[in-house]
Amino acid sequence: MKLFLFALSFILITACAPAPPKRSAIGDALWQVQQPRLSQIERFQLNGRLAVKTNEDNWTANVYWKQHTPNYELRFTAPMGQGALRLDGTAQGVILRTAEQKTYYADNPDELMREVLKLALPVSYLYYWVRGIPVPHVAIQDYLPSENGYLYSLVQADWKVHFDRYQAVQNVQLPGRIWLENEQFSARFVISEWQLDALPISNSALKVKLEMPLSNKIWFY
């Protein structure tokens, strides 16, 4: 199934990233302080823009993400009304609604993105990376904090992740831009607006559907 996002001919990352900071004992110590604080952020809302490049195609979309853990709503909208899709998730599972008015169900968002849209976007990992923290219980291959204790780069599950343009949101600093890269996929996620303490998500209809047993395979309605 083709992803709804229209193809673009563009180079995903045109500007050179700034020189990496030198590892310092101060940066590592501050990182140990910052990480627990960032991990406590479980309610947020953000707006941004995602650009994706694979071996076969390029796509871009506007992103709206509302998180009230464990529930979330994630929308991808192509520019100029070219299409949209929406993910609604709870602890029980995820629903994907496409521009073709099809609805798919699975246990996790990564499975839906990979099998339905043929896009290896690690949504479950992004929940942590957008906050500038590693995914828990997944081995960290490498990481580098900045001098002020926020992540500059991370290698985890064979993904190379770079963070910059940190912005003050209430009493914390959160990434304004994130690069993701592995052997087949690269993406740039620019976050234009952060809001913490998002209101609860109204998903009564979603809850009813997800109370039904979910198989390990994707199915659609």
From TrEMBL:
One of its GO terms (cellular component) is cell outer membrane. Keywords: Cell outer membrane, Chaperone, Lipoprotein, Membrane, Palmitate, Protein transport, Signal, Transport. The keyword Cell wall biogenesis/degradation does not apply. Residues 1-19 form the signal peptide. Its main location: membrane. It is a lipid-anchor. Transmembrane segments: none annotated. One of its GO terms (biological process) is lipoprotein localization to outer membrane. It is found in: Cell outer membrane. NCBIfam families: lolB. Plays a critical role in the incorporation of lipoproteins in the outer membrane after they are released by the LolA protein. Monomer. Belongs to the LolB family. This is Outer-membrane lipoprotein LolB. The gene is lolB.
